[in-house]
Fold this sequence. Notes:
By secondary structure, the protein is of the alpha+beta class. The chain has helices at 3-18, 23-29, 63-79; strands at residues 34-41, 51-55, 81-90, 93-102, 104-105, 108-109, 113-118, 124-129, 174-178, 181-185. The strands form two sheets. Strands 8-7-4-3-1-2-10-9 form an eight-stranded antiparallel β-sheet, with helices on both faces. A two-stranded antiparallel ribbon has the order 5-6.
Amino acid sequence: MNGNYQQVRAFYQHQLLLSDYEIGGLSKGFADSRIARIELGRLGNSGLFDSVEMELIVVDVPSPVRKAFDRHAWLSKYCLSNVCLFRVPVAGQVTYALTALGYVSDGWDGFCQLLEIFDHTGVFVGATKAEADNFTWLTVPFNGDAFPGSPDVHWTPTATVDENALWSVEKAMRIEDQGKMARLKFPWADIA
């Protein structure tokens, strides 16, 4: 690994340390740098997620970065996770940080905090689970196995969404299209 990648990894590890190894805290710190997201939400009183907000990528990003976001968007439909993509300058170079925060609710514990990093050309720099006591950099991106308690799902470049998905555009009761952002509302939402 070249020295610049070590510097990039050190930057992100320091940012995780500052956020107490919370991906949610890291995401808040980079909020102005966010270029895409998928966020499960609660509009009603059910206690379960009943909506999904999707902020689509509308800026140019390298193909591997877009594919990584698409992979995590697909995994979110089965493993229930919030996904954010950020464009963050590090040491004078653009980097891309993709975060995935596993969803936890009654009867569902998919808690995990994942971070994947890419350089300005889309070359994969590293991935880590945000764990203070067991911090290591991985040399491969995450797949469905990284999500605890998730169904046996494996993403491939040709993967399609099937009936086992926990959410999808097809399952939405209502779609509010707001240009760059869309909100999907589901039939189990107990809202007016």
